[in-house]
What we know:
By secondary structure, this protein is an alpha+beta fold. It contains 13 helices and 19 strands. It has helices at residues 8-20, 29-34, 36-45, 52-88, 92-128, 166-172, 178-184, 194-211, 233-238, 263-267, 325-343, 389-394, 418-428; strands at 3-5, 148-153, 176-177, 191-192, 223-224, 230-231, 250-252, 257-258, 274-276, 282-291, 310-320, 347-351, 363-371, 376-385, 397-399, 405-407, 409-417, 436-437, 451-452. It has an 8-stranded mixed beta sheet. β13 and β14 form a beta hairpin. It starts with a strand and ends with a strand.
Amino acid sequence: MSWVPAFAGMTVRWVIRAHKRNEPPVFDIKWIRDNREAFDAGLKSRGLEPLADKLLALDDARRQHVTKLQDAQSRRNAASKEIGKAKGAKDEALAAKLMAEVSDLKEVIQSGEEEERQLTKAVDDALAVIPNLPREDVPAGRDEKDNVEVRRVGEPRKLDFAPKQHFELGEALGLMDFETAGKVSGARFVFLKGALARLDRAIGSFMLDLHTGAATENLGGYTETNPPLLVRDDAAYGTGNLPKFSEDLFQTTNGYWLIPTAEVSLTNVVRDRIVDEAELPMRMTAWTPCFRSEAGAAGRDTRGMIRQHQFSKVELVSITTPEASSAEHERMTNCAEEVLKRLGLPFRTMLLCTGDMGFASRKTYDIEVWLPGQDAYREISSCSVCGDFQARRMGARFRGADGKTQFVHTLNGSGLAVGRTLVAVLENYQQADGSVIIPEALQPYMGGLTKIEKA
């Protein structure tokens, strides 16, 4: 079962399949009708054109057509009853006339039902590619230059030598092989060997142990999960990866999608379910390979492990109530930050502006780790609260104590990207001779090894 990048044509085919399964619309069109100014203002803050009038015009056409169909169906039912009366009165001419009318109405209704499906599809297709609306406390802005620093933790280590980038260190140690990976798989792949392969494993295990530890107010309590790496259309649609971002994914020849993050598998655990409020919050974590085509990353980070087609990540996902989602977002971000604190890696936490947030997010914190080899902070985690945006796509609800149901709120975050954490450890703990000290927190996972050096 091979896989190939998905391109624009696949998006069209997917949309057709999705509507055969009656995927739910993302936005409530009634809400847009009642809040058109707020809806357009939210889109404007993301740098998008107002869409309320266009969407409502599509919906008006659909509603008018539905009214015509209902009128035709009512007339058909009435005419059918009149046929019986006409025959009872032995008025064969009237009965024949009414039967012809019923036959014509049947054809009108059948063709009209197909038109209604197409009009409904047009509305749903338009709604499916509109991003989530930002929360009011998200700063307005166009791109990463308008993001706001929330906090900075740790001071970059002062080196008395010129720091190297991670790929220079890894290749000099003989433990990071991009050339062979290129022959086997192409660009944006790597072979890790020996102590670096073990360090990669150690980092992932350390993160899982931290996140699955006993729950406290700000740490732990996540259930370790080993989810599927291949998902169906509706799962990728549920988290917002389809239909708009199909070109960023890899698809197998028999139609599955390789997960770009375990968020897709984990969040869909509540798909088409009504959970009891007592079960919330649900907190899950998974350490999985992730696959991304990096379609929009041409020319960026072409060397090294920062941006690869295949990488591993420890993901955090929470399912909670609307009232608890803001606090859960802060908690999740704290869990991700704690990994860097225990590894002694300097970082800063950024609140993303409206123009830099992901498609499904209402509010996002990016955590950026310091990389001395690049003399820059680079993203190592994004923690997002999505509100009910994904829940609407998945049909995921909870039943409160009052017996009423409403959509859950979903959250996701990297806790952390394992490869990028490896990069950060290499660059921050490098020594003048090219060796790398292993952080104390990771040494128990390294079989007593405290330093990686060239054999």
